[in-house]
Amino acid sequence: MLRLLVSRLLYAAVILLGVILVVASLVKLVPGDPVDVIAAGNPGMSVQDMDTLREKMGLTRSVPEQFVAYLGQAVQGDLGTSIRQGVPVTSLIADRLPATGELAFWTLLLAFVIAIPLGIVTALKRDSWIDYAGTFVAVLGVSMPGFLLAVLMILWFSIELRWLPASGYRGSALASIGRAVVERDVSIFWNAFRYFILPSISLAFVLVAVNARLIRSAMLEVLQQDYITFATAKGVPRLTIILRHALRNALLPIVTLAGLQMGALLSGTVVIETVFAWPGIGRLAVDSIQVRDYPIIQAVVLVSAALFISLNLVVDILYRFIDPRVRND
């Protein structure tokens, strides 16, 4: 396990170095000049002031020099300063990341709560109308864009029925659980959680489709194994066979997929966060691109890559704990 951990950490370090190289050269690759953006908001800035600012921001350096400088700053936790807001980028990301993280949590929870029973039932009812209905839901989920579903739900649940808010964020729903329990007032939790419902459904719809089909395929494969036949011949209850033996082994591929999906969600769901005016890192990236705030764009790319790599490392290690076959190999 130690050798595995060391090798994975080395791979992660190499990938991060590659990401930092791309991020450091982002200013060179993207058309436009951030100094021109700043000068547009300061009409009194002279050409000399602009040249001085370019020198201060390191825009006159070569890509290797920018890479070394950015790497040294990133190792120290310094991801630069926002051009527009003039505050450290790390503080901006720290303010936005919790909103994205909790949205990802509720999205995955909703996706698996629906996908696991749906995958089991469609596998047990293979080639029945239930299986065909599950296939239809899967195709619909993969085919429908998330932003289209988001707009339709806003029109129906927010504008027509006025049940749920169309946009906004009222703080962490998870953090409000403790307060709701202490004060015995469920409305405290509901006032925060209702803002998560529509964005979570918009993101979870496609995940339900993918996960349900994967669970169905894995269940069909597991149910044909010899140990399932042996357990059935011994008279083990059907429910025990399904939940304890079949489902336990069928969920192994889902662990890997869950890590990838969580990494993608934490990287910022740009479209959904924009539609629902969600204060996450995806929307932060979009707003920064519009004003060419390159330090924020660089930091979002780097943090997203680091989160994705870290989650894959955790899943890779976790997989060896839950699957003895992989651990023995």
From TrEMBL:
The UniProt record lists the keyword Membrane: yes
Localization annotation: Cell membrane
Keyword terms of this UniProt record: Cell membrane, Membrane, Transmembrane, Transmembrane helix, Transport
GO biological process: transmembrane transport
UniProt keyword annotation of Transmembrane helix present: yes
Membrane-traversing stretches: 9-27, 103-124, 136-159, 192-210, 250-276, 296-319
UniProt cross-references to InterPro entries, sorted A to Z: BPD_transp_1_N, MetI-like, MetI-like_sf
GO cellular component: plasma membrane
SUPFAM superfamilies with a match to the protein in the record: MetI-like
Domain ABC transmembrane type-1 span(s) in chain numbering: 97-319
Membrane topology: Multi-pass membrane protein
Family matches, as CDD domains: TM_PBP2
The family this protein is said to belong to: Belongs to the binding-protein-dependent transport system permease family.
Protein name (database record): ABC transporter permease
Lineage: Bacteria, Pseudomonadati, Pseudomonadota, Alphaproteobacteria, Hyphomicrobiales
